[in-house]
Amino acid sequence: MGGKQQMTKVHLYFQYASIGGLIFIFVFPILWSLVTSFKTIRDAMAIPPVLLFKPTLNNYIVLFTKSQFLDYLLNSIIISASTTIISTFIGTLAAYSLARLPFKGINIVALGILIVRMIPMVSLAVPIYIWAYNLGLLDTHLVLILTYTTFNLPFVVWIMWGYIKQLPAELEDAAQVDGCTRLGALFKIVLPMAAPGAAAASIFCAIFSWNEFLYALVLTSTNARTMPVAAASFITLVGVQWDMVFAAVIVIAAPIVIFTLALQRYFVSGLTMGAVKG
Amino acid sequence: MHHRTSLNTRKQEFRFKRLRQLLFTTKGLGILLLAPAVIFILITVVYPMAYSFFISFFDWNLVYSSPTYIGVTNYIKIYQDVVFWNSLRTSLVFTFSSVFLELLIGLAMALLLNRKIHGVGMLRTIFAMPFVITPVVVALMWKWLYNPDYGLIPWVLDGLGMANSDLLGNPKTALGAVIGVEVWQTTGFMFVLLLAGLQSIPNELYEASYVDGASSLQSFRFVTLPLLKPVLLTSLLLRTIDAIKGLDKFYILTGGGPGTSTEVLPLLILENAFRYFNVGYGAALSYILTSVILLVSFIYIRTLRAIK
């Protein structure tokens, strides 16, 4: 009896230790970056690393004064917000159509969505670049908004399709019996009920657009540049401008981290909705 | 008079009927709602893909030359190009190593945390956090950690007695170092999905197998794994596709070097199309990449169907 209790205790300690270890591994790089962003360059480069230091906002000041980072921040916000709104709206309408108004070619549509997700973004970059060049759309917000919507749409449709399918259809039918049209039922009943799913889909659109690098790199130069591209540009041929990198890392990541912590529920449900029910 | 009125009324009815058909019948509404999305995809995906395919049969440098038709020469050049085969190999090694590790660690984490109900939500968020951070930012974080002069990792490795602690600067360890960063970022994704899958397996099945005398290893093999397969394969598919496509981390951490040890195919395409502006060759390369992805996905989906 005593031996078995010992085993269970060891078992438990091992579990707790593992979890502790995992938390450390997952959290440390983020915390380290946060701490480093408030160090002077001298403190940051100190080996062995200093844990007690005099915090400073110097890196952030350099970031916003020596580069147009505020503009890039605004660009990221404008582009992410716009594509999120457009994608969620169009995608939800399309998902409603697929979920409630089935027709013969529906499986082809499902396949189409999957295939679009499979296309590597690099493959589309070349024709889109040429296209944007011919239309004079290079280095505009619009070209990124449109391009991101292309990649966000299949995702939104996928999530909302599964979500709307599992909403009870009786409420819509009841509304129609009461004299409401299908279109009316869509706007008055289904869309409000689908709000949580739409919220989850929107979060993913926003995060994807905020984080996107390749198209922003290729399709913009100074006017519509977004933050990830700016941060990458701090790596130059002569060296890395680490002070600006430290601050940029936090400026870019902080909104996402805060956002995710605040909306944990939607975020996790969105992840699983996309994969488990898909 | 009576006759004219009924004629007008009939015309009005006809016009309204059409509008009504569009908005209020099932078929009309369905098409109307679906149309914006479909049109959008047609314009921004189908057309460029077709155009890209078209370009791949041309020799075209955006800076130096105008497009010249050369048939399948680009594809032949690719077939004969050592750089291409190397980058394909690097991509595949990267993809399958990362995904394998993510699966292993993610599954272990999911199994570990399948019991504790208290605080699982918070843990889930913590572990999923790296996944939502910008890949470029994650790469920059780790670029600093890996920095040979000031980073923590070489400092620790030196202390442990390692000879060459500049992991990113060594052709033999560079790819592994990037794989490490990728695994750090995306294991949380696998974990969340697998945990959800595990939690959807009803307890009664485990109890029944226990009553039948199965050990925990056996119940894992015969209860857990089979029921987990759909989630497993879906997660694997999504992760594999994303890993093959990935270039952000490589751009930031190594730029394809040292040498060509981390030159993955997407990065090669980026260089050919947007540094050297050989868009014809770049388009051909990207079609090869797309084909590889489609092939891998096809195999996954086939396996998934075979189980269902």
What do these coordinates show?
Chain A is mainly α and 278 residues long. Chain A is built from 14 helices and two strands; from the N terminus they run H-H-H-H-H-H-H-H-H-H-H-H-E-E-H-H. In chain A, a hairpin with a 2-residue loop joins strand 1 and strand 2. Chain A starts with a helix and ends with a helix. In chain B, strand 1 and strand 2 form a beta hairpin. The longest helix of chain B has 31 residues. The radius of gyration of chain B is 27 Å and the shape is flat. The termini of chain B are far apart. Chains A and B meet through helix 1, helix 4, helix 5, helix 6 and helix 7 of A and helix 2, helix 5, helix 6, helix 8 and helix 10 of B.
**Count the helices of chain B. How many?**
13
- Find the structural class of chain B using helix and strand composition: mainly alpha
Alpha-carbon distance between the two ends of chain B: 70 Å
Q: What coarse outline of chain B follows from CA principal-axis ratios?
A: flat
Number of strands of chain B: 2
User: pLDDT under 50 segments of chain B (min length 5)?
Assistant: none
H/E element sequence of chain A: HHHHHHHHHHHHEEHH
Mean pLDDT of chain B: 86
Mean pLDDT of chain A: 85
Q: What helical percentage do the residues of chain B reach?
A: over 70%
Give the low-confidence spans of chain A: none
Chain pair sharing the greatest interface: A-B, 90 and 87 residues
Radius of gyration of chain B: 27 Å
User: What is the count of helical runs of chain A?
Assistant: 14
Distance between the termini of chain A: 47 Å
